[in-house]
Specification:
Elements lengths: L1 E8 L7 H21 L2 E6 L5 E7 L3 H9 L2 H6 L3 E8 L2 H12 L3
Antiparallel strand pairs: 1-3, 1-4, 2-3
């Protein structure tokens, strides 16, 4: 199943930017390993914000939930990370379904 993940990262007033970067550096290692393994289809960092967008391919919502809870950034500062999760499908599959619907009586 494909999911669009939209991460918005904040940090507390008591955390320095350097502390955030240390955690985020750890997170980048995990994210790129997941990309190399094929779990993450692609990743983007939004310019000028603390926002990351990912497309992931996992077997179930349960698996995605477990993965999210175990991310370094979620373990260390999860109360400051918001993730919007949207199930998505390939456009080609949608197009096929639309064409099939046109031929139904």
């Amino acid at each position: 199943m494909l999911y669009h993940l939209d991460f918005k990262v904040e940090y507390s007033a008591t955390m320095s930017q350097q502390d955030l970067f240390n955690i985020w550096s750890e997170e980048t290692d995990v994210a790129l390993e997941a990309k190399a393994a094929g779990v993450v289809v692609d990743l983007w960092k939004c310019v000028g914000t603390r926002r990351v967008i990912a497309i992931v391919n996992v077997d179930s919502a349960d698996e995605l939930d477990r993965i999210l809870f175990n991310l370094p950034i979620m373990k260390r500062m999860g109360q400051h990370v918001q993730v919007q999760v949207t199930p998505i499908r390939r456009y080609e599959d949608f197009a096929t379904d639309i064409k099939a619907m046109l031929t139904q009586d």
